[in-house]
Each structure stands twice: as structure tokens, then as C-alpha cells.
């Protein structure tokens, strides 16, 4: 793939209802710690929230290109939002996106952009709530946290990603597959056959997983690099949106979904809730919530780490935080 400059790339950051007011601090950190461009994407957000986003664009107009409203009354699944953006907004040779609860504690983008040399896609941003990035051998599907297979195959992530458009266009045209999440039985027969031939046939695939598999099956290279300065809490958008508006489709649906996801939903939700409460308390009065009881050693360590990085985030961008009072 052709060399690309960091400043040529734009990250689409999708915000769901009730999330922008607090999570804008995360986006601010990425602006300050990189030269990547940013597009704010409103997914089901109401007028007051899009006004906050527009004000953010005005404050950071040299780096934030626009607020793009998906124009839907209700929020749509993340993969569908990415599909709309891919078709409607062409920002040069690459397509990028990032979860709204990802922050930067230092420079990170140069290392990821360098990986694009010779690769069709680079992903990053494994969430802090999970130590597992390798798919279980008995799994019925490819979950969001399944970044690698046990044989070393790279599924990548849909948390932070940069894609070469020529490669994606080629695979999309060949297979008719986009960035969405899929049930295996709903895939076109030719795609199911190809996934079987590649040894990657499952009942469920999270956002972008099918596309990432097929890209590699078509001979393109995909790599994943987690960077210490790129911190993804994971699940904060889900938690904050659940407070703002009930969205039944966000919950695991059906027996297969429950078997794959319910074991991890509580851990993710509790982690995100504590992070959100920490951020909200710091912004409102500078206090810190106590850690919940009954945690494992791993969970306690991760929550301490999350609280520490959020404290530093609010202190670093106190000018932005003061606007939230």
C-alpha cells in the first residue's frame, strides 16, 4: 500500500445518545496527542447534543472536519453507521474510525500509521476491561474482543481501525460484505463457503469481523497493534446511552447471543459504569467514587488504572471539563 501521512487521515468517532457531553474529553485527548483529523458522528443524538458537538467543532475547527448526523430518529448498530460513513464520506485513500471512549495519554498515531505500509488495515484499542484477546476454541462466534484466533490469525478490532479503501472496495465488490455484524446463516452462500474454506465459519460475527477475514482471504494483510498510549475503556458509550434511552437491540438477543456474550456483558458493564461514575464525579465536584466490593485482583487493578488515567485526563483538559458544569 502507498505511504500515507498521519495528517491525511480522518477518524470517524460515532457518538450515541447521552454520551458526547462526557466523552468529548476523550476525543480532545486524541486531537492533542496526534495530527489525525476527526469527524464527529451523531448516531440518534437529539438537537441539544448535536449543538454541543457543533460547539466542539468550532473550538477545534483546525482538526475536526464536521458533525455528521446519520439522520436517524433512533441509534443504529455500529456496523451500519460505519457503512453509511464509508459510502457517504470519502476522505482520500483511507477510511478510519475510533470508539468514543478511547483516549490518548501520549503520542500513538505514528506507530499505527507506519503499520499501514504493506497492510490493507491496521486495528488497535483492545479494551481495558478484558485481558483476553484470543478467541476461545469452543466459541460459537467471533466476538468484539476476539482480536486473534488461537492459531495466530488476526481478526482485528472494530474499536480503532484504519483501512486502505482500494483493498476494502475490492473485497466489498467481490463478496458484497461490509462493516456490519452478521449471523452466519444470514450470509450469502458464496461467503459462507469461503469462510468454511478459510476455516472461519461461525454462527455470529461482531462488527467488521467478516470483512477482516475476507480481506485476508483475498490476499491482503491486516495487522493489530495495541499501543500503551491509546487507552480504550470499553462499554462507556453503551452504559451512558442506556441511561439516556433504552435500546433493546443493544442487549444480547437469542440463545446463541446469550451463550457467547452474557459471560462478558456484566464485566464490561461494571467496568464502564465505574469509569463513567469516576468521570462524572470529577467533572461535577472533583470527588472520586470508591471501588466496588467483591472484585478479583485483576478487576481491582484494572479499575485503579482506569481511575488514574481518567483523573489525569480531567486534569490535563480542565478547560474542556469546566464547560461541562
Could you list some keywords that capture this structure?
about 325 residues; 7-stranded mixed β-sheet; 11 helices; 3-stranded mixed β-sheet; about 15% strand; alpha/beta
Please give the structural blueprint.
Blueprint: E1 10-15, H1 20-33, E2 37-42, H2 47-59, E3 64-69, H3 78-88, E4 94-98, E5 102-104, H4 109-115, E6 121-124, E7 141-142, E8 160-164, H5 165-175, E9 182-183, H6 189-197, E10 204-205, H7 209-217, E11 222-224, E12 230-232, H8 236-244, H9 254-284, H10 297-316, H11 318-322
Parallel strand pairs: 1-2, 1-4, 2-3, 6-11, 7-10
Antiparallel strand pairs: 4-8, 5-12, 6-8, 9-10
Helix pairs in contact: 8-9, 9-10
Summarize it:
The protein is of the alpha/beta class and 325 residues long. The chain has helices at 20-33, 47-59, 78-88, 109-115, 165-175, 189-197, 209-217, 236-244, 254-284, 297-316, 318-322, and strands at 10-15, 37-42, 64-69, 94-98, 102-104, 121-124, 141-142, 160-164, 182-183, 204-205, 222-224, 230-232. The protein has eleven helices and twelve strands.
Structure explained in plain terms:
The chain is α/β, with parallel strands linked by helices. Strand 2, helix 2 (47-59) and strand 3 form a beta-alpha-beta unit. Mean pLDDT is 90; it is low at 245-260. The chain contains 11 helices and 12 strands. The strands form 3 sheets. A 7-stranded mixed β-sheet has the order 3-2-1-4-8-6-11, with helices on both faces. The chain has a 3-stranded mixed β-sheet with strand order 7-10-9, with helices on one face. A two-stranded antiparallel sheet has the order 5-12. The chain is globular, with a radius of gyration of 19 Å. 43% of the residues lie in helices and 14% in strands.
Amino acid at each position: 500500500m502507498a505511504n500515507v501521512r498521519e495528517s491525511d487521515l480522518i477518524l470517524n468517532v460515532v457518538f450515541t445518545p447521552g454520551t458526547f457531553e462526557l466523552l468529548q474529553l476523550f476525543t480532545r485527548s486524541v486531537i492533542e496527542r496526534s495530527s489525525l483529523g476527526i469527524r464527529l458522528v451523531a448516531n440518534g443524538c437529539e438537537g441539544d447534543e448535536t449543538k454541543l458537538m457543533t460547539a466542539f467543532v468550532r473550538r477545534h475547527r483546525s482538526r475536526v472536519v464536521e458533525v455528521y448526523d446519520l439522520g436517524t430518529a433512533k441509534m443504529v448498530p455500529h456496523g451500519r453507521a460505519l457503512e453509511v460513513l464509508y459510502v457517504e464520506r470519502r476522505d482520500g485513500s483511507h477510511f478510519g474510525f475510533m470508539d468514543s471512549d478511547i483516549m490518548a495519554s501520549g503520542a500513538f498515531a505514528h506507530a499505527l500509521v507506519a503499520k499501514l505500509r504493506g497492510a490493507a488495515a491496521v486495528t488497535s484499542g483492545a479494551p481495558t476491561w478484558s485481558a483476553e484477546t484470543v478467541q476461545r476454541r469452543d466459541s460459537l462466534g467471533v466476538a468484539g474482543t476476539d482480536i486473534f484466533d488461537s492459531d495466530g490469525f488476526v481478526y482485528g478490532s472494530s474499536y480503532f481501525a484504519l483501512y486502505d479503501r482500494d483493498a476494502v472496495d475490492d473485497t466489498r465488490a467481490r463478496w458484497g460484505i461490509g462493516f456490519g455484524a452478521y449471523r452466519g446463516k444470514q450470509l450469502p452462500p458464496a461467503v459462507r463457503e469461503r469462510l468454511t474454506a478459510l476455516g472461519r465459519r461461525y454462527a455470529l460475527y461482531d462488527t467488521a469481523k467478516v470483512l477482516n477475514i475476507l480481506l485476508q482471504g483475498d490476499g491482503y494483510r491486516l495487522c493489530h497493534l495495541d499501543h500503551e498510549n491509546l487507552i480504550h475503556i470499553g462499554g462507556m458509550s453503551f452504559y451512558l446511552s442506556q441511561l439516556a434511552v433504552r435500546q433493546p437491540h443493544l442487549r444480547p438477543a437469542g440463545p446463541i447471543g446469550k451463550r457467547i456474550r452474557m459471560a462478558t456483558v456484566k464485566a464490561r458493564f461494571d467496568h464502564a459504569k465505574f469509569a463513567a461514575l469516576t468521570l462524572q464525579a470529577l467533572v461535577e465536584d472533583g470527588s472520586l467514587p470508591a471501588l466496588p466490593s467483591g472484585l478479583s485482583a485483576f478487576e481491582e487493578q484494572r479499575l485503579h488504572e482506569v481511575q488514574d488515567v481518567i483523573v489525569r485526563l480531567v486534569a490535563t483538559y480542565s478547560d474542556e471539563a469546566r464547560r461541562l458544569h
